[in-house]
Design goal:
Low-confidence stretches of chain A: none
Helix content of chain A: 55-70%
Helix content of chain B: over 70%
Shape of chain A: globular
Radius of gyration of chain A: 23 Å
Order of helices and strands of chain A: HEEHHEHHHHEHEHHHHHHH
Oligomer: heterodimer
Low-confidence stretches of chain B: 20-26, 375-381
CATH class of the largest domain in chain A: Mainly Alpha
Largest sheet of chain A: 3 strands, mixed
Number of domains of chain A: 2
CATH architecture of chain B: Orthogonal Bundle
Number of strands of chain B: 0
CATH topology of the largest domain in chain A: ABC transporter involved in vitamin B12 uptake, BtuC
Number of strands of chain A: 5
Number of helices of chain B: 16
Chain lengths: 421, 381
C-alpha cells in the first residue's frame, strides 16, 4: 500500500518534471523566435546566396538563393512550436520539436550572416565532417568505456598519445605503420587505465586526470627534448584524400562524404560497427550488462574484470586512431598539446549523444559544424565574436547534463569500481 | 522504525568521521610512507625516461643536482619555490575542501582564470585608490568572481544533479573563450597592443615583494602570508567550524548528513563557492604578485596541478601546504634543470603525474614496495 502511494508520487514527480522541462524548452524556443525576429532580421529585398558546387565539379547545380523573408517564416514557426510546447507540452514529440526548432534557428542565423553576400556551403559542410572526426572518435571511445561503467576522462590523453605516436612512427616507418602504432599506443593507455581502475581500484576520475597529465608531460618533453633537434623524426607523410568513384561526383554529399581521407571513412565505419556490436550481438549485450549491473552480470557468468579490460582497451585503440588524425590526417607534424581539449569535447559528444555511438557521431557533427562556422564567420564579417560561437557547444553540454532540455541517463554502474565477492 | 535506521546510519557516519579525523595517528603508513615512496619512485622513473630519450648518465646526475639546487639550494631558489607554491597551495586548498565535501571539482583552472581576470580589471579600473585598499579589494574581487563562477557548477549539481566533473570541465573550456574575448575589449586590452593582453595592475594594486631589498630579482611576494592565512583558515573551517563539519559529513555519507538535518543542496553550493573563492584568490595572487596583468593561458595549468596537490596532501590543509612546497620546488628546480643540464622542464610534469599515480593507488605502491609495509595485506581505501 505504502509502496503504491510512493510509486504514484514518484510517477507524478516524473510527470511534473517532464512538464517543467517542456515549459523551459518552450520558453527557449519562444525566446529564439524573438531573437530571430528582432536581431536576425533581414530586409525583405536582400537575398543570401549559398554556393553548392565549385566550377570544376562534374555535376553543376545552381546556387541556393534564399530571400530575406525566410527569417520571418522561421520566427513564426519557432513561435508556434514554442507556444505549443509551453502550453500543451510536447509529449513524445518534445525532443523532435526542440531539434527542429534549433535546426531552423541555425538556418536563420546562416541566412542572416550571409545576407547580401555569398558563401560556399558545400565547403563548410565538408569542413564540418573533417572537424567532427576526432570528436566523434573520442566520443565513441567514451561510449565504449562508459558502457562497461568505466568513466573515461583520459580520452584527451589517448588522443594526444595517438597523435604523437602517429607523427613519430609515421616519420620512422611510414604512414601506415605509424597509424598501426598510434592505435596500439592508444590501446596501451586504455589497458593502463583499465589496470589502474579495475585491478588497483584507483578512483576513475583521478586515473583519467593522471593519464592526461602524464601523456601531456611525456609528449611535450619528447617534443622539446628530441624533436627540436631531430626534425626528421617529426615529419610524417599525410594520408591523401581518396575519391570514391561516381559517389564523389554527387553534388554537396559527394565532397562531404565520399571525397575524404581514411579517417573520415574509418570513423563512419567504426560508428556503424560499434552500434551493431553493442546492440545486436551477444558480446555487446554482456558489455552493457556489466555497465548497468555488474553483480547480476557476474552471477550469470560474465567475467566483469575481463569485459572492462577489453572494452577500455578497445576504447583506447579507437581514441588512438582518432588521435592519429591530428598528425597523419592533417599536418604530419606533432605540436605540444595539439589536441587542445578535443578529447573533452568528445566526452561532451558522448553525453550529448546519450551514450550511443550514432548519437555521439551526430553530436560531434554539431560541434564540428559550430567549429567550421566559427571559421567562416570571420570571413563574413558578422558582428558576433567568434569566441561566443566557440563556447556554444560547452554551454549546450552543460544544459544537457543539467537535464534542462532532454535528459541523458548514464549506464547505471558508471564510475563505480566492482569488487568480486 | 525509520528513526532507528537513521540513528544507526548516523552512528556509522559519526564513526567514519572519527576515523577520518584521527587518520594522522592511526594511518601513519598511508600518510607518510606512501607519499615518500611515491616521490622516490616518480624520480627514479623520471631518470629512466631521460635515459630512454638519449640523455647520458652524467647529465642525468647533473639535472638532479640542478633540481635540488634550484629548488632549495639558495635564498633565491627558496624564493622561487615559495613563489611557485603560493597559487598552487591556494587552489589546492579549495580542491581539497571540495574532496572533503565529496565534490570532484576539476574547474579550478577556469575559476583561477576568472578570478585573476577580475582582479586585473578591478585594479586598473580604480587606479586612484591608495595602496593596501586597492590591493585588498582586488584580491576580494578575484575571490568573489571565482566563487560565483564555481557556484554555477554547485547550483546545477544541487538543483538538477548535473555531475560536477562534466560541468566544471565545460566551464573550464568556456572560461578560456571568455578570457580571450574579454582581453580583446578596448576597455581591458592594453593600449597599442593587437594581441589579447590586459592593461597592467597599478603599483597600488600589486602584492608587495618581500625580498627585493636583498636582490630585486627575488619574486617572493606578500601572497605568502595570504597562503599561510588560507591554510589556517581552511583548517579552522574544516575541523573547528559547524559548516566544515557539514562539509565533511556530507562528503563521508550524504544520506546520513541529510537525515541529520543538513541541507545537502546548500552544502554543495557553499563548498563549491568556497573552493572557487580560493581558486579565484590563487589567480588574483598570481596576477597581482607575479605577472602584473592577465593574458591568455596565464593560469599555466596551475588549476590542474592543484588537483595533484590536493591528492598528495590527502585533502588536509597542512598536507596541501607541504605538497605545494614540494611542487613549487619541482617547478623552480625544473627551470634550473632546463638551464644547467638542458633537460626540458616538461619532465617535471611527468614526475608530478607519476607521483599522483602512486599516491592515488596505494595498492600499486604496496605491490611495488611490499617490504615497506607492515600490514601488506590491508587493501587500499
Amino acid at each position: 500500500m505504502a509502496d503504491a502511494t510512493s510509486a504514484s508520487i514518484a510517477q507524478q514527480k516524473i510527470e511534473s518534471s517532464g512538464a517543467l522541462r517542456a515549459r523551459i524548452s518552450g520558453g527557449v524556443l519562444i525566446a529564439l523566435a524573438v531573437l530571430v525576429l528582432f536581431v536576425l532580421d533581414v530586409a525583405a529585398g536582400e537575398v543570401a546566396t549559398f554556393k553548392l558546387t565549385g566550377p570544376r565539379d562534374a555535376i553543376q547545380i545552381p546556387n541556393l538563393v534564399v530571400p530575406g523573408g525566410f527569417n520571418m517564416l522561421v520566427a513564426a514557426l519557432l513561435a508556434f512550436l514554442g507556444a505549443r510546447l509551453f502550453f500543451r507540452g510536447g509529449g513524445r514529440w518534445a525532443t523532435m520539436f526542440i531539434g527542429i526548432g534549433l535546426g531552423i534557428a541555425v538556418l536563420a542565423f546562416l541566412v542572416w550572416a550571409d545576407a547580401g553576400k555569398s558563401f560556399n556551403l558545400t565547403g563548410m559542410l565538408s569542413e564540418t565532417m573533417v572537424r567532427a572526426v576526432p570528436i566523434a572518435l573520442g566520443g565513441l571511445a567514451g561510449v565504449l568505456s562508459e558502457r562497461v561503467a568505466v568513466v573515461n576522462i583520459a580520452i584527451e590523453g589517448m588522443l594526444l598519445a595517438g597523435a604523437f605516436t602517429g607523427a613519430l612512427m609515421g616519420s620512422l616507418l611510414g604512414s601506415w605503420l605509424g597509424l598501426v602504432a598510434a592505435v596500439a599506443i592508444g590501446g596501451m593507455f586504455g589497458m593502463m587505465l583499465a589496470a589502474l581502475v579495475v585491478t588497483f581500484r584507483m578512483d576513475q576520475i583521478i586515473a583519467g586526470v593522471v593519464i592526461n597529465l602524464f601523456v601531456l608531460g611525456l609528449t611535450s618533453y619528447v617534443t622539446s627534448q628530441v624533436f627540436a633537434e631531430h626534425r626528421w623524426m617529426n615529419n610524417a607523410e599525410v594520408f591523401r584524400r581518396i575519391e570514391i568513384p561516381v559517389l564523389s561526383d554527387i553534388p554537396v554529399l559527394g565532397p562531404m562524404l565520399f571525397s575524404q581521407n581514411i579517417f573520415v571513412y574509418g570513423a563512419l565505419i567504426l560508428v556503424g560497427v560499434a552500434t551493431y556490436y553493442l546492440f545486436h550481438t551477444k558480446g555487446g549485450l554482456r558489455a552493457r550488462a556489466v555497465g548497468e549491473h555488474p553483480r547480476a552480470a557476474d552471477t550469470l557468468g560474465v567475467d566483469v574484470y575481463w569485459t572492462r579490460y577489453l572494452h577500455v582497451t578497445l576504447a583506447g585503440m579507437v581514441a588512438g586512431f582518432g588521435g592519429a588524425y591530428f598528425t597523419l590526417g592533417s599536418v604530419g607534424r606533432f605540436d605540444e598539446n595539439m589536441t587542445n581539449g578535443r578529447g573533452f569535447i568528445g566526452l561532451a559528444a558522448m553525453i550529448f549523444g546519450r551514450w550511443h555511438p550514432v548519437g555521439a557521431l551526430m553530436a560531434a557533427l554539431i560541434f564540428g559544424f559550430a567549429d567550421s562556422l566559427q571559421q567562416k564567420l570571420a570571413l563574413l564579417n558578422t558582428p558576433i565574436p567568434s569566441e561566443f560561437l566557440a563556447m556554444a557547444p560547452y554551454l549546450a553540454t552543460i544544459v544537457v547534463v543539467a537535464g534542462l532540455i532532454g535528459k541523458a541517463r548514464p549506464p547505471a554502474a558508471d564510475g563505480q569500481p566492482y569488487v568480486k565477492e | 522504525m525509520t528513526s532507528t535506521i537513521a540513528k544507526r546510519e548516523l552512528d556509522d557516519a559519526g564513526r567514519k568521521l572519527l576515523v577520518r579525523a584521527t587518520q594522522g595517528r592511526e594511518n601513519f603508513e598511508d600518510l607518510v610512507i606512501v607519499p615518500i615512496f611515491a616521490v622516490v619512485a616518480a624520480l627514479v622513473l623520471g631518470a629512466l625516461i631521460m635515459l630512454a630519450t638519449g640523455v647520458d648518465i652524467a647529465t642525468i646526475g647533473k639535472s638532479f643536482v640542478a633540481l635540488a639546487v634550484g629548488s632549495f639550494g639558495s635564498l633565491n631558489a627558496v624564493s622561487e619555490t615559495l613563489t611557485a607554491a603560493i597559487p598552487l597551495v591556494l587552489a589546492g586548498l579549495g580542491l581539497g575542501l571540495g574532496f572533503r565535501a565529496g565534490l570532484f571539482n576539476i574547474g579550478a583552472e577556469g575559476q583561477l582564470l576568472m578570478g585573476g581576470m577580475a582582479a586585473a580589471i578591478f585594479s586598473f579600473s580604480f587606479p586612484g585608490l591608495p595602496f593596501p585598499v586597492l590591493m585588498l579589494l582586488s584580491l576580494t574581487a578575484g575571490a568573489v568572481i571565482g566563487a560565483l563562477y564555481a557556484s554555477i557548477a554547485g547550483i546545477l549539481k544541487a538543483t538538477t544533479g548535473a555531475h560536477e566533473v562534466i560541468s566544471t570541465i565545460m566551464l573550464n573550456l568556456t572560461s578560456f573563450q571568455i578570457l580571450v574575448y574579454l582581453l580583446r575589449q578596448p576597455y581591458i586590452q592594453k593600449e597599442g597592443r593587437s594581441d589579447p593582453i590586459s592593461k597592467s595592475v597599478p603599483d597600488a594594486g600589486r602584492l608587495p615583494q618581500l625580498l627585493d631589498w636583498i636582490d630585486p630579482n627575488m619574486r617572493l611576494h606578500a601572497g605568502l602570508f595570504l597562503m599561510l592565512i588560507a591554510v589556517a583558515f581552511v583548517w579552522w573551517l574544516l575541523f573547528r567550524s559547524k559548516i566544515g563539519f557539514a562539509f565533511r559529513a556530507s562528503g563521508a555519507n550524504p544520506d546520513a548528513a541529510r537525515y541529520a538535518g543538513m541541507k545537502s543542496g546548500l552544502i554543495v553550493v557553499a563548498a563549491m563557492a568556497t573552493a572557487g573563492a580560493l581558486a579565484g584568490l590563487a589567480g588574483a595572487a598570481q596576477v597581482q604578485g607575479v605577472l602584473g596583468r592577465a593574458s591568455p593561458g596565464f593560469s599555466a595549468g596551475i588549476g590542474f596541478d592543484a588537483i595533484a596537490l590536493a591528492l598528495l596532501g590527502r585533502s588536509h590543509p597542512v598536507g596541501i601546504l607541504f605538497a605545494g612546497i614540494l611542487f613549487g620546488g619541482l617547478e623552480a628546480g625544473g627551470r634550473q634543470m632546463q638551464v644547467d643540464a638542458g633537460v626540458s622542464i616538461d619532465l617535471i610534469a611527468i614526475i608530478q603525474a607519476l607521483i599522483i599515480v602512486f599516491i592515488a593507488a596505494p595498492l600499486l605502491v604496496r605491490a611495488i614496495f611490499p617490504w615497506g609495509f607492515t600490514r601488506a595485506t590491508k587493501g587500499g581505501k
